[in-house]
Amino acid sequence: MKKIVRKGLFYLAQVIRFIYHAYLRANGIKIGKNTFISLGAKLDTQFGEIYIGSKVHITSGCVLLAHDGAIKQMNPDANPRGKIIINDNVFIGVNTVVLMNVTIGANSVIGAGSIVNKDIPPNSLAVGNPIKIIRDL
Fold first, then answer.
1. What span, in angstroms and rounded, lies between the C-alpha atoms of 79 and 77?
2. What is the pLDDT of residues 13-23, one digit of tens each?
3. pLDDT profile of the chain (137 residues), mean per 10
């Protein structure tokens, strides 16, 4: 009985995740194939653009912000809308924040709790606040 309930919950979660991905796509986010986005992640769908490649894993508590409202306070001529590009086969650890105008290269790993405020080259392990590249993968 336990096994049946567990399997049923697994399939229900898959349906909910499919609906969540459809919602994100309807709001303009491009998502590649075989990508996992935790239901606990927040992807800003109001302003800016977000592109997520294939085989990407975005864990719980992650926030992707493709805009910055505060930038208008500092410079009224600045564009508060930006772009986030996450290339194929990237893992983004728990509670990471990805800021606007950032590209994360393919096959990279972003450590938990990081603040990604600059581009990350492909095949990199990066962690911290602000983000630092620790080594090549």
1. 7
2. 889 988 989 99
3. 88 89 90 93 86 97 88 77 95 96 97 97 96 95
What phi, psi does 61 have (nearest 5°)? 85, -5
b (16+ CB within 10 A) / e for 14-52: eeeeeeebeebeeeebebeeebebbeebebbbeebebeb
* The token pair that represents 93 in the structure block: 């650890």
Classify residue 94 by its DSSP letter. Answer: T
Instruction: Check: pTM over 0.70? Answer yes or no.
Output: yes
Name which of 77, 31, 35 is nearest 56 in CA terms: 35
